[in-house]
Amino acid sequence: QFTNSTSDAKASTTKFNLHTLRSQIELYKTQHNGVVPTGTLVELTKNTDIDGNQGTGSAYPYGPYIRQIPDNPFNNSNTITVITNDPAVAADVTGTGGWLYNATTGGIWIDHADYVLE
After folding, report:
1. Predicted confidence (pLDDT) per residue in 61-99, tens digit
2. What element of type H or E holds 13?
3. 32 with 62: CB under 8 angstroms?
């Protein structure tokens, strides 16, 4: 039972983090004229202007959207693997990364074989 509890907690946390990332990518997209963050998602952690340039002060009124890219609790990684599929497919899963991200569409998925379709 303990193993199931641990797995359930990791799954729940991962899904919550995925939901957060998706909502913040959508907010970024809305505030940046439909443009999504780059493949590193660093723009989500910085202040930006309408064009996505990073900086400080009143000329950069957007963000930060999150303090840091959250870890995928299954492997404690927050790396972003850029993929070209949308939605992600099983072949995209590395099993070692945190997240799978399509930098063209802004779609993001969990880099885990059991949860990639979430």
Report:
1. 999 999 999 999 999 999 999 999 999 999 999 989 999
2. helix 2-31
3. yes
pTM: 0.93
CA distance 24 to 94: 24
In angstroms, the CA 79 to CA 40 distance is 8
Q: Which residues contact 76 (CB under 8 A, 6 or more apart)?
A: none
Spatial separation of the C-alpha atoms in residues 89 and 66, rounded to whole Å = 26
Task: Report CA-CA distances (Å) from 1 to 5, 6, 9, 12, 75.
Answer: 6, 9, 12, 16, 21
| Cα distance between residue 86 and residue 107, in whole Å | 7
Edge-to-edge strand ranges of the sheet holding 80-82: 80-82, 99-101, 108-110
The Cα–Cα gap between 106 and 90 comes to 18
